Amino acid sequence: MTSQLLPGRLEQVIDTLIQESQPPSVLVIDMQEYVERMHSTEGFPYPSFLRTVERQGEVLYYAKKMELPIFLVEFSKKTFGKTLPQLTALLRGYRNKKIISKRGSSAFYQTRLQSLLEEKPIREKQPLVLMGFHISDCVFRTAEDAHERGHQVITAPSVLLPPYAPELISPFYYKQCKFYDDCFPKLEVES
């Protein structure tokens, strides 16, 4: 069985959810200073890391424009530092963002995330857009816990680290999440 990504760009998916009266919340998981150091050589970030952060920034910009709740999930600021300044700069002054400190892999483990999500009008399968690090640990554990709590999980390889590597993608993403290719729509050219 081949696993396939769903067609669609995250902004289009978010827009469709808003039109269906199911606006999602956006979670940025562990995109902290330490992660940049891990994806760098001699102080220069890898191009794949920069592309991922840039794409996350585009999604955050759109989420902010649409006034969606944004949660910056951080693991041990002492060790890993703060959320990357490239991302927090986009959210400066934005009132609908919250920082969640976590102690384990999942953003739900011993945090107030679920109660903060419930402050919004409660909907069955409330959508959550997940972005961050690490595709096979913290993002994965958060996706599992979100699914168990009845949330619809939406993500794409373009907003996850390490960069898309099929061997790191759990079948869970394809079976239990909405896992999008996040490609630009094809341009129709008149001949």
Notes on the structure:
With 191 residues, the chain is an alpha/beta fold. It has one domain (10-179): Rossmann fold (3-Layer(aba) Sandwich). The chain has helices at residues 10-19, 33-38, 47-65, 77-80, 85-88, 113-117, 138-148, 171-176; strands at residues 25-29, 40-41, 44-45, 70-75, 97-102, 127-133, 152-155, 160-161, 178-179. The strands form two sheets. Strands 1, 4, 5, 6, 7, 8 and 9 form a seven-stranded parallel beta sheet that branches. The longest helix has 19 residues, at 47-65.
Look at the structure and give the mean pLDDT.
Answer: 89
- Give the CATH superfamily: Isochorismatase-like
CA-CA gap between termini: 38 Å
Question: What is the ordering of alpha helices and beta strands?
Answer: HEHEEHEHHEHEHEEHE
CATH class: Alpha Beta
Strand content: 15-25%
In one word, what is the shape? globular
From the coordinates shown, what is the CATH architecture?
Answer: 3-Layer(aba) Sandwich
Structural class: alpha/beta
Please give the domain count.
1
Write the topology of this structure.
Elements: H1 10-19, E1 25-29, H2 33-38, E2 40-41, E3 44-45, H3 47-65, E4 70-75, H4 77-80, H5 85-88, E5 97-102, H6 113-117, E6 127-133, H7 138-148, E7 152-155, E8 160-161, H8 171-176, E9 178-179
Parallel strand pairs: 1-4, 1-6, 4-5, 6-7, 6-8, 7-9
Antiparallel strand pairs: 2-3
